[in-house]
Amino acid sequence: MVEGSVAVTVPADGRSSAGWSVRVAAVGRTRAGERVLDGFDLTVAVGEIVAIVGPSGCGATTALRVIAGLERADTGTVSIADGLSTAAVFAHTAVPRFGRVGEAVAIVSRRAGHPDPDARARELCGLLGLSDPEAATHRLARGDRRRVLLARALASEARILLLDDPLDGLQNYERAVLRDRLVEHLRDRRITAVWVTRETSEAAAVADRIAVMVRGRIAASGSPEDLFRHMGDPAVAAVLGPVSTVPGIVEDVTVDVWGQDVPLAEAGPDGHCEVIVRPDQVVLVGPTEPGVDAVVQETRFLGNMRLTQVRAQDGSVVQIEHSVEDRVAPQAPVRIALATSAVTVRPLG
Q1: d(Cα 107, Cα 137) in Å, to the nearest integer?
Q2: Which residue range forms the structural domain that includes residue 296?
Q3: Do 40 and 149 reside in the same domain of the chain?
Q4: Which one has a higher pLDDT value, 348 or 316?
């Protein structure tokens, strides 16, 4: 049995007449005196891929386990649309210890009623990069065990997949290849997925919508582009990546930052504010260009770019992503500016 699977009849086209596959409302869950989920709400449309990201301990895995029926919610409701089956892959889901890879996948396909389970198993092994279906499952490396778990979940022909960090244990290149293959398969078959990940870049690459989870509830959700462009909540911004705040003054639909008039992502009240900026929104500029003087505090080489931290003349500390060709040294004077079409601000006072 695939962990979290529900044996129900699936409509021929995999559609739900309700338009949604999963609906979670006001779910609360307390464990050992700690409130793990606190008003957790989530609705996932048919065929939609929703990625949940959040800091360690935010409750994302618990939310997934509640949706899968592996933990009981103290309050609230969890609804799965009629006729839709689920399959789940969790971090500690075990691969069958005895037998062969192909057999481990084919047995699930057979239970799902596939007319040729062995052929389906070979297809899924090829899709997910399991080059040797005859390999013994108990000898598999960690990354290949994850591939087998994913293959078994797909073999169940479930219309809803609940995935807890499904690419964990894979190297970067393998992870990217498997991610793209898996997402293509989900989209081709209009399979709904709730995908928990610690990597915001992975969430942005796979999801139609990202849900940011903070302290047991969804703090913000939207398309990847919308979320990264509108980071008004500092807690949400911190989840989506390193951010800095710099002083600014809002006037009408622009904000004055370092002598630059920058459009606002969302209109706000006039007056002093904090501007939330990501490292990719700040650039090094020439000494006579608009911006502000700064001093380099530290710089790191990250392979395809450098990440440099500077202290601006106004006292704000910001990080900058820039080309490896732009070499700077600690204590060196530089000039920085905002290079973005719109920013998010937080009013002061």
Answers
A1: 14
A2: 245-347
A3: yes
A4: 316
